[in-house]
Amino acid sequence: MKKENVWLSYSEEQKEELKKVCDLYKKCLDEGKTERECVEVTVKLAKEHGYQDLADIMKENKSVKAGDKVYAVNMKKMIALFQIGTKPISTGMNILGAHIDSPRIDVKQNPLYEQDGFAYLDTHYYGGIKKYQWTATPLAIHGTVAKKDGSVVTVSIGEKEDDPIFVITDLLVHLSQEQMAKKATDVVTGENLDLLIGNTPIEKAEDVEKEEKEAIKANVLKLLKEQYGMDEEDFLSAELEIVPSGKARDCGFDRSMILAYGQDDRICAFTSLFAMFEEKATDHTLCCLLVDKEEIGSVGATGMQSAFFENTVAELLAMTEGESPLLLRRALANSMMLSSDVSAAYDPLYASAFEKKNSAFLGKGVTFNKYTGSRGKSGSNDANAEYIASLRKVMDEAEVSYQFCELGKVDVGGGGTIAYIMAKYGMNVIDSGVAVLNMHAPYEVSSKVDVYEAVRGYRAFLRWNF
């Protein structure tokens, strides 16, 4: 089935709304380059739209009722937003789920060292990356430093025009004959992804005769102390992420696309939020769930495999229908979900990796992946036909442009999302997101049309009275 490029189908009013949506989306990307920052952005927007912190409601021993809007945060890296419907929660929810972590490079716990006239931070990459893509490109440091005295310092260096930026060096092409003969996976090793951060020795005090052995490292520590009150041992309790420096930008002469870091999967997270904030009174309870750790298997206390979501729904049930493990199971099993995650956009320069008629294309609307996984659908949630038929009807009635696709050729590769985890509750789940070029690269490409259609599609799903 051929899907047309959506650009020419819009009215002037829709084009204006598209521009507003994409401008807000780019702003959110700029402010949310880490999972913590995404949660901060989400909480700020949620409060502006009348949401209350569930923790405050529980502390004051209050309850919730139909029409109330609440949010719950888990360890500052995971958040769930709910709009309580007129029907009991146990009859099911309309859930939009996305992840807010992105591939990046993390700073190790004992990272700072000096070698042959340079100071570096030792690193470990997070998620699936092509390591060579991260060399010789402007980088920033974002994160949090927690100190023993209980204070917490927020770090963001490399985004302002007058900030310094950082880099991971690469070997000059003149000396790269041996390097360039290697497989792409071996061109740059994980141990060589260390961040260059300094080259100036500390100035020796007049009353000190002893020369500093690691004078460049000492100078970096001096600067960290002056600017952040940070000692070397504070790296032990720091979470510092190395991400590309710079803002999300329009891409192309026609400004039809967006080039930015972290669009996998913040493109689905923020569009889900935008849709959620527009909804008024609803029958079913609505939920927008933004999670951490998807890029490394959804593990840990802030990943989808944690009990946070289940526990939060249990708290809401206790406030509305009474404490009951059975009601919790019913609420989850009766729910409908879009696991909102990106899909691989067809790239004609690498056509051999795709099966064209089952590929997602930029500019042709929101995507649906019946299954993900790899080679024989391993690790996949495979959505059932009846659920897909219902979603087709919902999208067609809302005049949303959508496309069904898969992640490349059968034997080439594959990927996974949080869908299979939510499916364990017995709910209907399908992957639905936005096609992206350069997935997992430092800078990814999306179509403004698809951003807008994702919002429209998620709106239609939230309004679905299944």
Structural features, described:
- The chain has 2 domains: 7-102 and 261-462, Aminopeptidase, CATH 3.40.630; 104-244, Aminopeptidase i, Domain 2, CATH 2.30.250.
- Helices cover 29% and strands 24% of the residues.
- The protein contains 12 helices and 22 strands.
- It has helices at 12-31, 35-48, 54-59, 177-180, 184-187, 215-228, 263-278, 308-320, 325-333, 385-397, 419-423, 448-462, and strands at residues 52-53, 69-74, 78-83, 93-99, 104-115, 118-126, 139-146, 152-157, 195-198, 238-244, 249-251, 257-260, 285-291, 336-339, 343-344, 366-369, 373-374, 402-404, 414-415, 428-433, 435-436, 444-447.
- The strands form 5 sheets. It has a 9-stranded mixed sheet, sandwiched between helices. It has a 6-stranded antiparallel sheet with strand order 8-7-10-5-6-9.
- A hairpin with a 2-residue loop joins strand 5 (104-115) and strand 6.
- The longest helix is centred in the N-terminal third of the chain and has 20 residues, at 12-31.
- It is globular.
- It starts with 11 loop residues before the first helix and ends with a helix.
- The relative contact order is 0.18.
